[in-house]
Amino acid sequence: MNTLIVVGEADAGAYTQAFSGSGLRVAAFPCADWNADLSPWPAEKAFKKGEDFAGRGGAYLQALLAFSAEWECSLPEAPEKRFLAGYSLAGLFSLWTLYQTDRFDGAASASGSLWYPGWLDYIAQRRPVRHAAFSLSLGDKEEHTKNPVMARVGDATRETCRLLKAQGYPVTLAWNAGGHFADEQLRTVKAVQALLDLNG
Question: Left (φ > 0), alpha (ψ -120 to 50) or beta: where does 60 sit?
Fold first, then answer.
């Protein structure tokens, strides 16, 4: 039995259904403030009318770890492997988490906000805490936005994949049709499936 926590989601129902019969147990872990809880460090807003990123990812991570431990106590057996998944900023957070703790064996980042300021510099100078697997995906129109910050997402995703591969980690990168706000749950399911495939 393996486990998956979908970060930033309030309901795991769609994911439980998608992986029914696979032996994967799924839970959702919501957040109160997307820009604050899922940002790993403070950064300026990406939109003029938006809000700055508060960088409270560390506190959210501690809550996630406590939830993970408590949830597993309700399961019939301890999992063989534990995975995280998230969409958009939750995808970034899922990847970042593997640089903070050895609890998880892999992360799926669907349309992850890898344009986030400082992300590439951060992972270029560090390694995940344990040997883990990574699944990345992106919509093929996402890097063609007029927003100069978010337009970096394509190159940032490719570079994240390249750096992880160069460091010897199993990683896959898939491209989906469309922009950022399309088929969020389906894309996340596909990224998780690719992650499971990496783990045999």
Answer: alpha
